Amino acid sequence: MKKIIGAFALTLTTLTTGLLVAACDGNNTTTPNASGNGATSTPAGSTTTVPVGSGQGLKIGSLLPTTGDLAAIGQQMVESVPLLVNTVNACDGVNGKPVTLVQVDDQTDPKAGAAGMTKLATLDKVAGVVGSFASSVSSAAVSIAVPNKVMLVSPGSTSPVFTEKAIKGDYKGYWARTAPPDTYQAQALAQLANKRGFKRVSTVVINNDYGVGFEKAFVQAFEKLGGTVVNKNNPVRYDPKATTFDTEVQAAFAGKPDAVLGVFYEETGSLFLKSAYQQGVTQGVQIMLTDGVKSDTFPDRVGKAADGKYIIAGAIGTVPGSNGRGLEAFTKLWQSKKGVAPAPYTPHGWDAAALLVLAAQAAKENTGVGIASKIREVANPPGVEVSDVCEGLKLLREGKDINYQGASGNVDIDQNGDVVGVYDVWTVSDDGKIKTVEQVSPK
């Protein structure tokens, strides 16, 4: 009974929130975009529908952060999904009809993500969802997607927990991701630390699925390479809603480590590193970071020292790279629409949406059941290798098998919904600019 009451309350909360947003947002109207397909921007906490056709075709959703701790990355990544939908609708859609997209801001918050997923699954009745980015939000969302038979494909939730639960059969095939799990990124970062000669490393992580999962995987990988994790027995894990970090800073930099690995999100990570600088503990210690803060705005948020230099100049980090056969074409399309190069994870968002539409076409039905049954088939060999989503749809209509080669990578999805990728190594220059300096593989 408690479960029934809880589900009803969550649905009621979602409905109420939607009504309040609609009442407050009197300017949420649809205006044509550059391609003439009527996509709209998504204000914080609201829902946007890309209205096309009769509404009887494939309907998908996106559940990504345009507000909250991951907004800086999410605001760019979210635009990849309507771009894919517009592209598909310009080449005859899926199963003979245009695709409809419903976009929801998950606010980088598991509660908001759960409410958003409930709305998408039960009210909008989408067949598939691109989302979420934060692993903690995806954990909340997938528990709603699975019983509602909605296929969830994340472009960025990298926690190893998803692999563990998939192995147990918790997801029943309704989960996949286009970014590799942190078991691989942790191995790549451990190799990077070893290559740079760091023997003693300490860790500080955001206390959620992403941070703790990464920490455990890094400790294991780094120790296998002969390294020592200074605070292994007393890990530093901070509250995602923390605003002060004096105690955590002292604990993370204790024990004279060669480097400190910070697994952060941008808002809280910038506060931690600023506090570390103000306490004078960063001198002579290498700062290592991950994908959660790889944003052009991050160095400015951390700030500058008294001499005008950026506090985190010289920091190094990793981020899932993009090396797919479709990357060049995607980059050209993105630049023609946005005027800038694609940001991290935008290729992964594009590929997540592409897999949803290709799987629906392969299944010849616009349902989550159909998508889940065909998503690995269109992503993996055998089949004709295609990087153009319209070409893939055409071949599927002709009854041929395809092997989609994405922009982010080959997106070969294993039985647990995982892909293996490469990682870009990035650093912060003296002028505060982030640049990629090399690539590293987990294997």
Structure report:
It is a single chain. With 443 residues, this protein is α/β, with parallel strands linked by helices. It folds into 2 domains: 2-23 and 37-179 and 324-398, Rossmann fold, CATH 3.40.50.2300; 183-322 and 422-440, Response regulator (Rossmann fold, 3-Layer(aba) Sandwich), CATH 3.40.50.2300. Helix content is 40%, strand content 16%. It is built from 15 helices and 16 strands. The strands form 3 sheets. Strands 7, 8, 9, 10, 11, 12, 15 and 16 form an 8-stranded mixed sheet that branches. A 6-stranded mixed sheet has the order 1-3-2-4-5-6, with helices on both faces. Helix 1 (2-24) packs across helix 4 (110-123), helix 7 (182-195) crosses helix 8 and helix 9 (246-253) crosses helix 10 (266-278). It is elongated, with a radius of gyration of 21 Å. It starts with a helix and ends with a strand. The model is unreliable at 1-45 and 50-55 (pLDDT under 50).
